């Protein structure tokens, strides 16, 4: 049996007035693999623990197969949880560890056949007679998975089960989890802060920030049509380039997005998405360019829809099969400060979005505070953006600083060196624009995903 899990407007506070999960609604159909993705402290584990029944739900409803389940004890939910540090019983062999929940469930029955079948599925038949201390980390995690799987639960709840393993093993077990959960067809909720793990595992990915659901969609949807700059920046490697821009739409003239010293001239006739940018005339926006939107090339080799830009090579990052070239284009990077920041301090329940001021207001406020200006906690809100250092503003402490404002992916044989001026081409079919609140305005929000392009 597999089950549907629904959360309706679920909230949770540990401290009065501080919501760590804020009105979360999610419908997970039977058999789906849903990934909860977000930075540290955004409430992922809390959501999972509320589904498991290990944490009380303050407000809202949890439905299991459509039935109200807020008060159901964990044992009545028929779910299996796998944690980051899954504690195996140290004095029990793998066989006994895997068989333990089976013996509890049906004391008279012989757990051997089920333990053996599970061990075969996980390829750990040879490890069944060993104690946990005689296993490697990856093997231990596999035994832990076996313990969760053996009793055929109706849902798996996994909380960063791979984060303590080395990269090779992580990839290997990731593939195994993918295969296993698909074979078993059991609803799975998987928590991670690793976007590549989320993208490779999930049927759908739910992106959380500060306890608030930002977007839920297939990996392709959240990548191709992120609802806001936070989702855009959280998903995809290398990270999307985010630049501060200004829309200029003079009467009768060409429409451009100014990027400081250079500008992008929107090709005529304007696409529908670009036409809709006209209302932003004179406003500051955030321009998002994923690596596939920019290539090295002379203006004469531009394809339809591509416009020129140029950049000064600041750093060449060799990756083996490709290089990442960090360019300085003379624009200002817009960064999302809490993407990889340490666990944020508890803050008051989220204010209403528009009351929180614009991103740029908060930017100024925060910069003022960092310079010793008016004191006060940074205000909550949809997205935060800070200037680059050297632009008169203080940097976000936790944001790693990379040279250049635009990263372009290219082949390793390109022979670029620091200090070279290089012509670039920007494909405006891949242009993202976000407004001052960080909401996506290009492609237009109402546009349906056209993922076959
Ligand atoms: N028992 C608790 N008492 C008080 N605050 C808590 C408790 N458990 C979690 N929190 C707070 O709730 C917020 C969400 O925590 P949670 O563990 O759900 O985050 P997370 O997204 O799983 O983070 P991580 O990726 O670091 O595991 C954090 O700010 C955390 O400090
Ligand atoms: Mg957690």
From TrEMBL:
Q: Which residue range or ranges hold the ABC transporter domain?
A: 5-235
Q: Does Secreted show up as a keyword for this record? A: no
Checking SMART domains in the record gives: AAA (SM00382)
| Gene Ontology MF: a single term | ATP binding
Q: What does the UniProt keyword field contain? A: ATP-binding, Nucleotide-binding, Transport
Signal sequence segment:
none
Q: Does the record's keyword annotation contain Cytoplasm?
A: no
Feature: compositional bias, Gly residues: 370-383
Where does the record place the region Disordered?
Answer: 366-401
Its protein name is ABC transporter ATP-binding protein
The major lineage groups are: Bacteria, Bacillati, Actinomycetota, Actinomycetes, Kitasatosporales
């Amino acid at each position: 049996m597999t089950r549907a899990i629904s959360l309706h407007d679920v909230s949770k506070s540990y401290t009065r007035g501080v919501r760590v999960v804020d009105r979360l609604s999610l419908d997970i159909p039977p058999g789906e693999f849903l990934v909860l993705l977000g930075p540290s402290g955004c409430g992922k584990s809390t959501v999972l623990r509320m589904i498991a029944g290990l944490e009380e739900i303050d407000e809202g409803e949890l439905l299991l197969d459509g039935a109200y389940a807020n008060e159901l004890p964990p044992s009545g939910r028929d779910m299996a949880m796998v944690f980051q540090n899954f504690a195996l019983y140290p004095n029990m062999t793998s066989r006994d560890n895997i068989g333990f929940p089976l013996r509890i469930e049906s004391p008279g029955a012989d757990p051997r056949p089920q333990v053996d079948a599970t061990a075969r599925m996980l390829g750990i038949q040879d490890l069944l007679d060993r104690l946990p201390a005689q296993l490697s980390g990856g093997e231990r995690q596999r035994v832990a998975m076996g313990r969760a799987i053996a009793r055929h639960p109706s849902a798996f709840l996994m909380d960063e089960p791979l984060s303590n393993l080395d990269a090779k093993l992580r990839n290997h077990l990731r593939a195994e989890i993918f295969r296993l959960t698909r074979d078993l067809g059991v609803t799975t909720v998987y928590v991670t802060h690793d976007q590549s793990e989320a993208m490779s595992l999930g049927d759908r990915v739910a992106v959380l920030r500060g306890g608030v659901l930002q977007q839920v969609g297939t990996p392709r949807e959240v990548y191709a049509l992120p609802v806001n700059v936070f989702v855009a920046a959280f998903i995809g490697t290398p990270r999307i380039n985010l630049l501060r821009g200004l829309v200029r739409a003079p009467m009768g003239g060409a429409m451009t997005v100014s990027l400081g010293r250079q500008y992008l001239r929107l090709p005529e006739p304007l696409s529908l998405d670009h036409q809709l940018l006209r209302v932003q005339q004179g406003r500051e926006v955030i321009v998002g360019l994923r690596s596939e939107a920019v290539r090295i090339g002379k203006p004469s080799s531009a394809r339809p829809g591509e416009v020129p830009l140029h950049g000064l090579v600041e750093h060449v990052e060799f990756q083996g099969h490709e290089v990442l070239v960090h360019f300085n284009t003379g624009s200002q990077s817009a960064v999302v400060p809490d993407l990889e920041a340490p666990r944020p301090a508890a803050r008051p329940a989220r204010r209403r979005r528009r009351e929180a001021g614009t991103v740029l207001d908060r930017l100024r406020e925060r910069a003022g505070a960092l310079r010793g200006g008016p004191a006060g906690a940074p205000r909550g809100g949809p997205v935060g953006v800070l200037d680059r250092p050297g632009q008169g503003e203080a940097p976000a402490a936790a944001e790693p600083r990379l040279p250049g404002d635009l990263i372009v992916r290219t082949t390793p044989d390109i022979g670029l060196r620091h200090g070279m001026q290089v012509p670039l081409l920007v494909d405006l079919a891949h242009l993202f624009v976000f407004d001052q609140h960080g909401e996506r305005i290009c492609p237009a929000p109402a546009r349906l995903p056209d993922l076959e392009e």
